[in-house]
Write a structure and sequence with these properties.
The chain is mainly α and about 300 residues long. It has one domain. It is built from twelve helices and no strands. It is globular. The chain starts with a helix and ends in a 21-residue tail after the last helix.
Amino acid sequence: MRPADLARLLALAAIWGGSFVFMRVAAPAFGPVVTATLRVSLAGALLLLYFRAVRFDAQWRLYWRHYLLVGVVNSAVPFTLYSYAALHIPASYSVILNATAPLFGAVFAAVWLGEALTWRKVTGLLLGALGVGLVAKVGGADVDASFLRAVVACLVAAMCYALTGVYLKLRAAHIRPMAMAGASQAMAGLALLPLALASPPAHTPGAAAVLSVIALAVLCSAVAYLLYYRLMADVGPARALTVTFLMPVFGMVWGVAFLGEKVTPSMLAGCALVIAGTFVVLRAPSAVRPVRAAATPSRGSTGP
């Protein structure tokens, strides 16, 4: 990997890892739904303006249904769930749980794409499950219902990313990734708008919350997607997906540095297990059972 590509990879991991910190600041002020709505709407608008500037045709008439579905499943739902989780658990927890997306992807690929669950993948899934258990501290005295709901919200959000990856392979592999990135953000904003109008903030958000939403939209969505797809074009999807391993590290560092969060031994151990499980799953060969053929490979985003 060239130095420029490595720099993009580290920048992307730092940006996506930081998104959980921004959500911790924005969600209490705006609420989960409005936070997600503002994020995808502004990001979608910026990306569409970029498309117009470079004369990029997203072919809306042909693919708007795909854009809507991916926008809801890959952006609207997970961004809302992570914003909800930000009300109840530290950013460090959320970023670790987000790294389980490739683990769910292995299961969904076995069900819908015919990819065999090899012993390596099963080992990775078990490692990831142990890691989630450590992060969630199941059975610990400090676990309450809101904590567990937040953990479940993060896991469901990770499942959404995995489902999107399967859908892209099965139904939308022919759509250019850049078009999907921008158009799906815009459609996610339209889908969330009625819910956002029905749940306005109780009080006027402060400057920190406003700046955090802007950072989520501009940095963590618009700029991050441009970085991600440039990285995929330069180094390939497999290497680009290694950002999954780096995000928890940056997320925990930002949480400690800017929010004063504490990193416990159980969190570090859980993070190591989740990353190890993800590494094993991603490195395992994707053997396809003969009864079904896998669709053309296409990568979805695992970024929050």
